[in-house]
Amino acid sequence: MAIEKKMEHAFNEQINKEYFSEYLYLDMKTRFALMNLPGFVNWFDIQVQEERAHAEGMYNYVLERGGNVELFAIDKPEIKGSTPLEIFKHVLEHEQYVTSRINAVYDVAEELKDRAAMLFLNWYVKEQVEEEASVGDVLAKLELIGDDKQGLLALDKELAARVFNPPIIK
Q1: How far apart are CA 140 and CA 134, in angstroms?
Q2: Among the residues of 65-147, which ranges form H helices?
């Protein structure tokens, strides 16, 4: 059965949000490159790859369901703050927004009783719990570090060890 137009539209809007997230994190990655913090650069590089994978997962799902993917314009990102702590507060706020948007797509699936979409979206719901926890962990460490440059460099070294594991979205 082909995907309903309302569901298709909800996915297309979320695909745009996922690509916007990629764009936002790419901009944040640049900020950390300018601060000479390669571990933070690595952390954001992985976020960029994850957001692209999230968008492509939804993109492929819509096509698999016989739908049409419509790519909307991506807004220019505006980063709140200039310090690592301020930027990570923005990241958490953004991830909470993405969670609310995925929940909105899930709401459409529930309304339409589109069980296939609900099953598919379960992965994204779980992923957002992990995303918010991951950002919260870095944010808590940044708050603990405060103005301690040595602490910031230690965290930078820790973030350099993060690796991208392509998600299996089903």
Answers
A1: 10
A2: 84-111, 115-145
Spell out the residues 6+ positions from residue 117 whose beta carbon is closer than 8 angstroms to its own.
3, 7, 11, 65, 105, 106, 108, 109
The proportion of the chain whose per-residue pLDDT surpasses 90, expressed as a percent, equals 95
Residue type, 75: D
Q: How many CB atoms lie within 10 A of CB 3?
A: 22
How many residues would you count in the chain? 170
C-alpha pair distances (Å), 105 with each of 15, 31, 69: 11, 31, 15
Q: Are 167 and 58 in contact (CB under 8 A)?
A: no
Query: How far apart, in whole angstroms, are the C-alpha atoms of residue 104 and residue 100?
Result: 6
54-89 pLDDT, tens per residue? Answer: 999 999 999 999 999 999 999 999 999 999 999 999
CA–CA separation, 46 vs 58, rounded Å?
19
CA–CA dist 42, 156 (Å, integer): 9
Encoded tokens for 159: 């973030």
